[in-house]
Design a protein that fits this description.
alpha/beta; SSR_resolvase; four-stranded parallel beta sheet; DNA-binding; Rossmann fold; flat; about 550 residues; three-stranded mixed beta sheet
């Protein structure tokens, strides 16, 4: 067939259709209409429609869109497969002014023009400027819409509702309230995975019975080795597990709007705290945070946590407050703890002295063995802590009793309803009766879950009755555990009993935390190592000057 040289080839067109949300795409809100108008537009202008790109549920504020990138890749290839890209409006193509101009020019370099069905403009400079102004308005409108959406989400969170993302492991989303066509949702504890979260915290604080408190990597290895998988059945990773150990959701305080899209922390004023059922008690959570903080290389160098020197990282000069570090003499034959300020600046910085390492180690460990781990003194030091724990334990018992009463009451009510149905007094097909049964079942099941959780928290608490026999047993076991076979001391044990040692001119001051002391002793009594890590907070259990060892 002969073609006349003056014949005009039909303009080839590609349609780009986009909706903003997956929900719009699912319900076919706008894509069919965009397609219909686009095909009619091409037919009216005798365009040959060669390809259609459909973007279902993607934002136009960025270029992270698969179909958009496929269209750009095709439009910049040689030879170009189409001559124009047809969109319903320029906002379907892009809502960012700068990015829109970048891609318009990129297509133009390959001879492809962008046209809008509802915003048709020419090619002269004034019309190009009009397109840029429209893009600016689209960008502004997009940002305003985002502000309104975020405001609505924050208000939803303030009312205690869940905003639709995947909940943390250990929780599940349940319908809480119906408002018109919208179902408001909240979080509840997921009994299938809650125990995994509790286990992770227990391993971090107490270990697995063969060692002391475990670090993040050790917990990951333990879970994977024992085939305790993630919610999706996968293997655990370090980052994933660290997020669980630091997430405040597990103490009942879920933080919404904490980070921006760029993962940057937002100001506290913009963060909304949503109350959810707690999985972990606050005392356990705070103790784990102290451990993570102390083991952070930015806070405590790895050599301090894992090094062989007994008091590295917890020994300080009593005169200037500077760290006392290890110094050697005679080619390493003699080892000393010396003030680092004096070592760097001389006596103008500090007049602190150097002390033989073995002498100070024995002095500190001996004092802990002979004075701190003495039954009467232990009872005196720990009495206030144990009293508070006794009060908390009593409150938990009362709460468990109330939950069990609620559970029993719901079961009795259900039994009466079932008896009425069997006797023919009530009609099972009555919608009101069904709602009543479902409501009582929900109350019963929630009361059972809450009671089991409270009972587990009570059983996992470190409360021990203050009796002479108990204190004597704790002290004797701790004395045995602090020493290693063949001499020397158990480093992690000592550092859990004492978290700061200050060396002054005439005395050595040893300080620590009452809570950590009790936790260490109970862990030892239970057959676990007392290695609880290096706490980041140092409340003083020192009762006075006479309780501290002195050296000549």
């Amino acid at each position: 067939m002969n073609i006349h040289p003056n014949a005009v080839t039909a303009t080839r067109a590609a349609l780009y259709l986009r909706v903003s949300t997956a929900r719009q795409a699912e319900h076919d809100v706008s894509i069919p209409d965009q397609r219909k108008q686009g095909e009619a537009y091409c037919a009216a202008r005798s365009y040959q429609l060669v390809e259609t790109f459909v973007e279902a549920g993607a934002s136009a504020t960025n270029d992270r869109r698969p179909e958009f990138q496929r269209m750009i890749e095709a439009g910049t290839s040689k030879p170009a497969p189409f001559d124009v890209v047809v969109v319903h409006s320029f906002s379907r193509f892009f809502r960012d002014h700068f990015e829109m101009e970048f891609y318009v020019r990129k297509l133009a370099k390959n001879g492809i023009k962008l046209v809008s069905i509802t915003q048709e403009i020419g090619d002269d400079p004034i019309h190009q400027m009009m397109r840029q102004i429209m893009a600016l308005f689209d960008e502004y409108q997009s940002k305003e819409n985002a502000k309104h959406v975020l405001r609505a989400l924050k208000e939803n969170a303030r009312q205690g509702f869940w905003n639709g993302s995947l909940p943390p492991i250990g929780y599940r989303v349940v319908a809480a309230e119906q408002r018109g066509a919208k179902t408001k949702k909240k979080l509840e504890i997921d009994p299938l995975h809650a125990d995994t979260v509790r286990l992770i915290y227990r391993l971090a604080l107490e270990g697995d019975g063969a060692s002391g408190g475990m670090g993040v990597k050790a917990i990951v290895n333990h879970l994977n080795k024992n085939r305790i998988f993630t919610r999706d059945g996968g293997r655990w990773g370090i980052g994933q597990l660290h997020r669980i150990l630091t997430r405040r959701t597990y103490i009942g305080e879920h933080q919404f709007n904490k980070r921006s899209k760029a993962k940057e922390l937002k100001p506290e004023a913009e963060v909304v705290t949503v109350e959810v059922p707690p999985l972990i008690d606050r005392e356990t959570f705070d103790a784990v945070q102290k451990l993570l903080h102390a083991r952070n290389p930015k806070v405590t160098p790895p050599r301090v946590v894992t090094g062989p020197v007994l008091l590295t990282g917890i020994c300080y000069c009593g005169n200037c407050g500077g760290a006392m570090t290890l110094r050697t003499g005679k080619n390493g034959r003699y080892r000393y703890y010396a003030c680092s300020i004096k070592a760097r600046q001389g006596e103008t910085g500090c007049k602190g002295r150097a002390i033989p390492m073995d002498k100070l180690d024995n002095l500190v460990a001996g004092h802990i063995e002979e004075r701190l781990l003495e039954p009467e003194r232990l009872e005196d030091i720990l009495s206030s802590v144990l009293d508070r724990r006794q009060e908390r334990a009593e409150r938990r018992r009362q709460h468990i009793a109330e939950l069990n009463m609620r559970l029993t009451d719901a079961e009795l009510r259900l039994k009466r309803l079932y008896d009425a149905i069997e006797a023919g007094v009530a009609d099972l097909n009555d919608p009101a009766l069904k709602d009543r049964i479902d409501g009582l079942k929900a109350i019963r099941d929630q009361a059972r879950i809450d009671a089991e959780r409270a009972q587990a928290m009570l059983e996992n608490s470190t409360h021990q009755a203050v009796t002479p026999a108990t204190v004597r047993s704790l002290a004797d076991t701790a004395r045995r555990r602090i020493r290693l076979e063949g001499g020397g001391y158990r480093r992690d044990h000592l550092r859990a009993l004492a978290q700061r040692v200050e060396v002054a001119d005439r005395e050595v001051r040893i300080m620590g935390s009452k809570n950590d002391l009790l936790r260490t002793l109970v862990a030892v009594q239970g057959g676990k190592s007392a290695g609880i890590g290096v706490p980041g907070l140092i409340p003083k259990w020192r009762r006075g000057r006479d309780s501290n060892p002195r050296y000549p």
